[in-house]
Amino acid sequence: MNAPASSLVTAETLRSALAGLLDGLPARQAAQAVERLIANYRGATPTEAPILRDRADVAAYAAYRMPATFEAVRSALEAFADAVPGWAPGDHTDIGGGTGAAAWAVSATWAGERPVTVLDWAEPALALGRELAAANPALRQTRWHRSRIGSALTIESTDLVTVSYVLNELTAPDRAALVDAAAGAARSVVIVEPGTPDGYARVIEARDRLVSAGFRVAAPCPHSAACPIVPGTDWCHFSARVSRSSLHRQVKGGSLPYEDEKFGYVAATRVPVAPAPARVVRRPQIRKGQVLLDVCEKDPSLRRTTVTKRHGDLYRAARDTDWGDSWPPADDV
Ligand SMILES: C[S@@+](CC[C@H](N)C(=O)[O-])C[C@H]1O[C@@H](n2cnc3c(N)ncnc32)[C@H](O)[C@@H]1O
After folding, report:
1. Which of 234, 269, 304 is the last residue in one of the domains?
2. pLDDT one-digit tens code per residue, 160-203
3. Structural domain tally of the chain?
4. What is the distance in A from the centroid of ligand 1 to the CA of 111?
5. Separation of 164 CA from ligand 1 center, angstroms?
6. Domain extent at residue 175
7. One domain, residues 120 and 207
8. Handedness of CA 277, 6, 207, 262 (dihedral sign)
9. Are 62 and 99 in contact (CB under 8 A)?
10. Does 96 contact ligand 1 (Cβ within 6 A)?
Protein backbone atom coordinates (compact mmCIF):
# COMPACT_ATOMS: atom_id res chain seq x y z
CA MET A 1 0.00 0.00 0.00
CA ASN A 2 1.56 3.32 -1.05
CA ALA A 3 1.29 6.13 1.48
CA PRO A 4 -0.14 9.51 0.39
CA ALA A 5 2.23 12.51 0.50
CA SER A 6 0.76 14.07 3.68
CA SER A 7 1.33 10.88 5.64
CA LEU A 8 4.92 10.67 4.39
CA VAL A 9 5.44 14.14 5.89
CA THR A 10 4.10 12.89 9.24
CA ALA A 11 6.34 9.81 9.04
CA GLU A 12 9.33 12.07 8.39
CA THR A 13 8.40 14.38 11.30
CA LEU A 14 8.19 11.34 13.57
CA ARG A 15 11.53 10.05 12.34
CA SER A 16 13.29 13.31 13.08
CA ALA A 17 11.62 13.63 16.52
CA LEU A 18 12.84 10.12 17.31
CA ALA A 19 16.34 10.80 15.98
CA GLY A 20 16.75 13.52 18.63
CA LEU A 21 15.79 11.11 21.41
CA LEU A 22 19.02 9.22 21.58
CA ASP A 23 21.22 12.27 21.08
CA GLY A 24 23.87 12.25 23.73
CA LEU A 25 23.29 8.58 24.56
CA PRO A 26 26.38 6.56 23.57
CA ALA A 27 25.53 4.23 20.68
CA ARG A 28 26.50 1.15 22.71
CA GLN A 29 24.21 2.15 25.57
CA ALA A 30 21.29 2.75 23.19
CA ALA A 31 21.82 -0.67 21.61
CA GLN A 32 21.98 -2.29 25.07
CA ALA A 33 18.71 -0.63 26.13
CA VAL A 34 17.04 -1.99 22.99
CA GLU A 35 18.43 -5.48 23.57
CA ARG A 36 17.15 -5.48 27.17
CA LEU A 37 13.75 -4.36 25.95
CA ILE A 38 13.56 -7.04 23.25
CA ALA A 39 14.46 -9.67 25.87
CA ASN A 40 11.71 -8.39 28.21
CA TYR A 41 9.13 -8.38 25.46
CA ARG A 42 10.06 -11.97 24.63
CA GLY A 43 9.60 -12.95 28.26
CA ALA A 44 6.41 -14.10 29.88
CA THR A 45 3.62 -11.67 29.05
CA PRO A 46 1.15 -10.50 30.28
CA THR A 47 2.91 -8.90 33.22
CA GLU A 48 1.69 -7.57 36.55
CA ALA A 49 3.54 -4.28 36.12
CA PRO A 50 4.61 -2.14 33.16
CA ILE A 51 7.61 -3.36 31.14
CA LEU A 52 8.41 0.22 30.13
CA ARG A 53 9.70 1.32 33.53
CA ASP A 54 11.93 4.33 32.93
CA ARG A 55 13.07 6.82 30.33
CA ALA A 56 15.81 4.55 28.95
CA ASP A 57 13.22 1.80 28.35
CA VAL A 58 10.76 4.07 26.63
CA ALA A 59 13.43 5.86 24.58
CA ALA A 60 14.63 2.46 23.40
CA TYR A 61 11.05 1.37 22.67
CA ALA A 62 10.24 4.55 20.79
CA ALA A 63 13.45 4.66 18.76
CA TYR A 64 13.36 0.98 17.92
CA ARG A 65 9.70 -0.02 17.63
CA MET A 66 7.61 3.11 17.16
CA PRO A 67 8.42 3.65 13.45
CA ALA A 68 7.20 0.10 12.77
CA THR A 69 4.04 0.24 14.91
CA PHE A 70 3.28 3.66 13.38
CA GLU A 71 3.54 2.24 9.83
CA ALA A 72 1.46 -0.83 10.67
CA VAL A 73 -1.34 1.25 12.22
CA ARG A 74 -1.15 3.80 9.39
CA SER A 75 -1.56 1.01 6.85
CA ALA A 76 -4.58 -0.43 8.71
CA LEU A 77 -6.15 3.03 9.02
CA GLU A 78 -5.65 3.71 5.32
CA ALA A 79 -7.60 0.55 4.44
CA PHE A 80 -10.26 1.55 6.98
CA ALA A 81 -10.49 5.11 5.59
CA ASP A 82 -11.00 3.69 2.06
CA ALA A 83 -14.02 1.75 3.36
CA VAL A 84 -15.63 4.82 5.01
CA PRO A 85 -15.11 7.55 2.42
CA GLY A 86 -16.05 11.00 3.67
CA TRP A 87 -15.88 9.96 7.31
CA ALA A 88 -13.19 11.24 9.66
CA PRO A 89 -13.00 10.81 13.41
CA GLY A 90 -13.95 13.94 15.37
CA ASP A 91 -11.95 12.62 18.29
CA HIS A 92 -9.75 9.63 19.08
CA THR A 93 -8.83 7.48 22.08
CA ASP A 94 -5.72 5.27 21.92
CA ILE A 95 -5.68 2.53 24.54
CA GLY A 96 -2.33 1.13 25.68
CA GLY A 97 -1.05 3.95 23.50
CA GLY A 98 2.44 4.06 25.01
CA THR A 99 4.49 6.69 23.23
CA GLY A 100 1.63 7.54 20.85
CA ALA A 101 2.34 5.66 17.61
CA ALA A 102 -1.39 5.30 16.82
CA ALA A 103 -2.07 8.97 17.59
CA TRP A 104 0.59 9.82 15.00
CA ALA A 105 -0.92 7.32 12.55
CA VAL A 106 -4.43 8.80 12.92
CA SER A 107 -3.00 12.27 12.28
CA ALA A 108 -1.27 10.89 9.17
CA THR A 109 -4.53 9.41 7.87
CA TRP A 110 -7.06 12.21 8.48
CA ALA A 111 -5.85 15.79 8.17
CA GLY A 112 -6.51 18.35 10.87
CA GLU A 113 -6.51 18.55 14.64
CA ARG A 114 -8.85 16.60 16.89
CA PRO A 115 -9.02 15.91 20.62
CA VAL A 116 -6.94 12.80 21.36
CA THR A 117 -6.70 10.79 24.58
CA VAL A 118 -3.83 8.35 25.04
CA LEU A 119 -4.30 5.86 27.90
CA ASP A 120 -1.49 3.69 29.28
CA TRP A 121 -0.33 2.40 32.67
CA ALA A 122 3.33 3.31 32.03
CA GLU A 123 3.89 6.91 33.08
CA PRO A 124 7.37 7.16 31.44
CA ALA A 125 5.84 6.11 28.09
CA LEU A 126 3.16 8.80 28.35
CA ALA A 127 5.76 11.42 29.28
CA LEU A 128 7.90 10.60 26.29
CA GLY A 129 4.84 10.44 24.04
CA ARG A 130 3.91 13.96 25.13
CA GLU A 131 7.45 15.14 24.40
CA LEU A 132 7.49 13.62 20.89
CA ALA A 133 3.99 14.89 20.08
CA ALA A 134 5.20 18.47 20.52
CA ALA A 135 6.74 18.08 17.04
CA ASN A 136 3.32 17.29 15.48
CA PRO A 137 0.89 20.27 15.34
CA ALA A 138 -2.07 17.90 14.81
CA LEU A 139 -1.44 16.40 18.26
CA ARG A 140 -1.65 19.66 20.21
CA GLN A 141 -4.96 18.64 21.78
CA THR A 142 -3.69 15.35 23.19
CA ARG A 143 -4.28 14.25 26.80
CA TRP A 144 -1.81 11.67 28.11
CA HIS A 145 -3.59 9.81 30.85
CA ARG A 146 -2.46 7.05 33.18
CA SER A 147 -4.94 4.18 33.16
CA ARG A 148 -4.85 0.43 33.73
CA ILE A 149 -6.60 -1.89 31.30
CA GLY A 150 -8.79 -4.36 33.18
CA SER A 151 -12.35 -4.90 34.30
CA ALA A 152 -12.41 -1.38 35.82
CA LEU A 153 -11.43 0.34 32.56
CA THR A 154 -13.82 3.05 31.49
CA ILE A 155 -13.61 4.77 28.12
CA GLU A 156 -15.48 7.98 27.38
CA SER A 157 -17.66 8.05 24.30
CA THR A 158 -15.50 8.67 21.22
CA ASP A 159 -15.53 8.37 17.42
CA LEU A 160 -12.46 6.13 17.20
CA VAL A 161 -10.65 3.75 19.53
CA THR A 162 -7.30 2.29 18.51
CA VAL A 163 -5.58 -0.60 20.28
CA SER A 164 -2.20 -1.32 18.75
CA TYR A 165 0.21 -4.06 19.82
CA VAL A 166 -1.51 -4.26 23.22
CA LEU A 167 -3.73 -7.37 23.26
CA ASN A 168 -0.64 -9.59 23.38
CA GLU A 169 0.27 -8.05 26.74
CA LEU A 170 -3.09 -8.78 28.36
CA THR A 171 -4.72 -11.77 30.04
CA ALA A 172 -7.74 -13.26 28.21
CA PRO A 173 -10.26 -11.63 30.62
CA ASP A 174 -8.54 -8.24 30.23
CA ARG A 175 -8.55 -8.58 26.43
CA ALA A 176 -12.28 -9.27 26.50
CA ALA A 177 -12.92 -6.39 28.94
CA LEU A 178 -10.94 -4.01 26.72
CA VAL A 179 -12.74 -4.96 23.49
CA ASP A 180 -16.15 -4.77 25.19
CA ALA A 181 -15.32 -1.36 26.69
CA ALA A 182 -14.16 -0.14 23.27
CA ALA A 183 -17.33 -1.48 21.62
CA GLY A 184 -19.46 0.32 24.22
CA ALA A 185 -17.68 3.66 23.81
CA ALA A 186 -16.64 4.02 20.18
CA ARG A 187 -18.27 4.33 16.76
CA SER A 188 -15.21 2.72 15.19
CA VAL A 189 -12.56 0.41 16.64
CA VAL A 190 -9.23 -0.45 15.01
CA ILE A 191 -7.13 -3.23 16.53
CA VAL A 192 -3.61 -4.01 15.32
CA GLU A 193 -1.47 -6.96 16.44
CA PRO A 194 1.84 -8.54 15.36
CA GLY A 195 1.44 -10.51 12.11
CA THR A 196 1.88 -13.90 13.77
CA PRO A 197 -0.49 -16.88 14.15
CA ASP A 198 -1.10 -15.84 17.79
CA GLY A 199 -1.68 -12.23 16.77
CA TYR A 200 -4.20 -13.43 14.19
CA ALA A 201 -6.02 -15.52 16.81
CA ARG A 202 -6.33 -12.46 19.07
CA VAL A 203 -7.56 -10.31 16.17
CA ILE A 204 -10.23 -12.90 15.29
CA GLU A 205 -11.33 -13.12 18.93
CA ALA A 206 -11.70 -9.31 19.04
CA ARG A 207 -13.42 -9.27 15.62
CA ASP A 208 -16.01 -11.80 16.84
CA ARG A 209 -16.74 -9.69 19.93
CA LEU A 210 -17.13 -6.51 17.86
CA VAL A 211 -19.44 -8.19 15.34
CA SER A 212 -21.54 -9.62 18.21
CA ALA A 213 -21.78 -6.07 19.61
CA GLY A 214 -23.34 -4.91 16.31
CA PHE A 215 -20.25 -3.59 14.48
CA ARG A 216 -19.56 -4.24 10.81
CA VAL A 217 -16.09 -5.11 9.64
CA ALA A 218 -14.70 -2.38 7.37
CA ALA A 219 -11.25 -3.87 6.73
CA PRO A 220 -9.36 -6.00 5.96
CA CYS A 221 -12.25 -8.42 5.44
CA PRO A 222 -14.70 -7.78 2.58
CA HIS A 223 -17.51 -9.11 4.84
CA SER A 224 -18.51 -9.47 8.48
CA ALA A 225 -19.16 -13.23 8.31
CA ALA A 226 -16.80 -15.80 9.82
CA CYS A 227 -13.19 -15.76 8.56
CA PRO A 228 -12.75 -18.48 5.88
CA ILE A 229 -9.29 -19.44 7.20
CA VAL A 230 -9.41 -22.83 8.89
CA PRO A 231 -7.84 -22.25 12.34
CA GLY A 232 -4.30 -23.60 12.55
CA THR A 233 -3.79 -23.81 8.77
CA ASP A 234 -2.88 -20.18 8.02
CA TRP A 235 -3.13 -16.67 9.43
CA CYS A 236 -4.26 -13.40 7.87
CA HIS A 237 -1.55 -10.77 8.00
CA PHE A 238 -0.06 -7.91 6.02
CA SER A 239 3.22 -6.08 5.64
CA ALA A 240 4.26 -2.44 6.02
CA ARG A 241 7.59 -1.09 4.83
CA VAL A 242 9.58 0.80 7.46
CA SER A 243 12.74 2.84 6.89
CA ARG A 244 15.47 1.59 9.21
CA SER A 245 17.24 4.05 11.46
CA SER A 246 20.97 3.81 12.21
CA LEU A 247 19.97 2.35 15.61
CA HIS A 248 18.14 -0.47 13.82
CA ARG A 249 21.13 -1.26 11.70
CA GLN A 250 23.33 -1.23 14.79
CA VAL A 251 21.10 -3.64 16.73
CA LYS A 252 20.06 -5.95 13.94
CA GLY A 253 23.07 -5.65 11.64
CA GLY A 254 22.73 -5.80 7.88
CA SER A 255 22.67 -2.86 5.58
CA LEU A 256 19.15 -2.84 4.08
CA PRO A 257 17.64 0.66 4.36
CA TYR A 258 14.22 -0.76 5.26
CA GLU A 259 12.47 -3.68 6.89
CA ASP A 260 8.98 -5.09 6.52
CA GLU A 261 6.76 -5.04 9.59
CA LYS A 262 4.23 -7.88 9.54
CA PHE A 263 0.93 -7.11 11.23
CA GLY A 264 -2.68 -8.24 11.49
CA TYR A 265 -5.66 -5.99 12.10
CA VAL A 266 -9.38 -5.48 12.18
CA ALA A 267 -11.24 -2.21 11.66
CA ALA A 268 -14.89 -2.37 12.68
CA THR A 269 -17.48 0.36 12.75
CA ARG A 270 -21.06 1.43 13.37
CA VAL A 271 -20.93 4.07 10.60
CA PRO A 272 -22.12 3.17 7.06
CA VAL A 273 -19.35 1.21 5.44
CA ALA A 274 -18.37 -0.02 1.95
CA PRO A 275 -15.77 -2.74 2.46
CA ALA A 276 -13.45 -3.71 -0.40
CA PRO A 277 -15.05 -6.18 -2.87
CA ALA A 278 -12.04 -8.45 -2.20
CA ARG A 279 -8.61 -8.02 -0.62
CA VAL A 280 -5.19 -9.30 -1.65
CA VAL A 281 -4.03 -11.41 1.28
CA ARG A 282 -0.53 -12.45 0.12
CA ARG A 283 2.31 -10.80 -1.74
CA PRO A 284 1.27 -10.95 -5.44
CA GLN A 285 3.40 -13.25 -7.57
CA ILE A 286 4.47 -11.58 -10.78
CA ARG A 287 5.33 -14.05 -13.54
CA LYS A 288 6.05 -13.49 -17.20
CA GLY A 289 2.82 -12.11 -18.65
CA GLN A 290 0.74 -12.93 -15.59
CA VAL A 291 0.07 -11.92 -12.00
CA LEU A 292 -1.19 -14.41 -9.40
CA LEU A 293 -3.33 -12.83 -6.71
CA ASP A 294 -4.54 -14.58 -3.55
CA VAL A 295 -7.71 -12.78 -2.56
CA CYS A 296 -10.28 -13.00 0.22
CA GLU A 297 -13.72 -12.45 -1.26
CA LYS A 298 -17.16 -11.42 -0.06
CA ASP A 299 -18.64 -14.95 -0.24
CA PRO A 300 -16.59 -15.41 2.08
CA SER A 301 -13.88 -17.50 0.45
CA LEU A 302 -10.18 -17.50 -0.32
CA ARG A 303 -9.28 -17.85 -3.97
CA ARG A 304 -6.29 -17.52 -6.29
CA THR A 305 -6.96 -15.49 -9.39
CA THR A 306 -4.62 -15.26 -12.38
CA VAL A 307 -4.60 -12.02 -14.33
CA THR A 308 -2.84 -12.23 -17.69
CA LYS A 309 -1.77 -9.77 -20.36
CA ARG A 310 -4.96 -10.59 -22.23
CA HIS A 311 -6.88 -8.78 -19.46
CA GLY A 312 -5.39 -5.44 -20.65
CA ASP A 313 -6.01 -2.64 -18.09
CA LEU A 314 -6.80 -5.15 -15.36
CA TYR A 315 -3.39 -6.77 -15.93
CA ARG A 316 -1.65 -3.39 -15.64
CA ALA A 317 -3.62 -2.73 -12.43
CA ALA A 318 -2.66 -6.16 -11.09
CA ARG A 319 1.02 -5.39 -11.64
CA ASP A 320 0.60 -2.27 -9.46
CA THR A 321 -1.37 -4.09 -6.77
CA ASP A 322 0.21 -4.77 -3.43
CA TRP A 323 -0.36 -7.22 -0.62
CA GLY A 324 -3.19 -5.70 1.47
CA ASP A 325 -4.79 -3.70 -1.37
CA SER A 326 -8.41 -4.05 -2.34
CA TRP A 327 -9.17 -5.88 -5.58
CA PRO A 328 -10.15 -5.06 -8.25
CA PRO A 329 -9.02 -1.40 -8.12
CA ALA A 330 -11.91 1.06 -7.54
CA ASP A 331 -12.11 2.14 -11.23
CA ASP A 332 -12.74 -1.44 -12.37
CA VAL A 333 -15.48 -2.31 -9.88
C1 LIG B 1 4.01 -2.96 22.73
S2 LIG B 1 3.48 -1.48 23.53
C3 LIG B 1 2.52 -0.71 22.24
C4 LIG B 1 2.47 0.76 22.39
C5 LIG B 1 1.74 1.50 21.28
N6 LIG B 1 0.31 1.18 21.27
C7 LIG B 1 2.36 1.22 19.94
O8 LIG B 1 1.66 0.68 19.07
O9 LIG B 1 3.53 1.53 19.74
C10 LIG B 1 2.24 -2.04 24.64
C11 LIG B 1 1.69 -0.92 25.52
O12 LIG B 1 0.60 -1.43 26.28
C13 LIG B 1 0.71 -0.91 27.60
N14 LIG B 1 0.02 -1.84 28.52
C15 LIG B 1 0.25 -3.18 28.66
N16 LIG B 1 -0.57 -3.69 29.60
C17 LIG B 1 -1.32 -2.66 30.06
C18 LIG B 1 -2.35 -2.55 31.05
N19 LIG B 1 -2.77 -3.61 31.74
N20 LIG B 1 -2.90 -1.33 31.26
C21 LIG B 1 -2.50 -0.24 30.55
N22 LIG B 1 -1.52 -0.28 29.62
C23 LIG B 1 -0.95 -1.48 29.37
C24 LIG B 1 2.21 -0.87 27.83
O25 LIG B 1 2.59 -0.01 28.91
C26 LIG B 1 2.74 -0.40 26.49
O27 LIG B 1 2.81 1.01 26.40
Report:
1. 269
2. 999 999 999 999 999 999 999 999 999 999 999 999 999 999 99
3. 2
4. 25
5. 8
6. 5-269
7. yes
8. positive
9. yes
10. yes
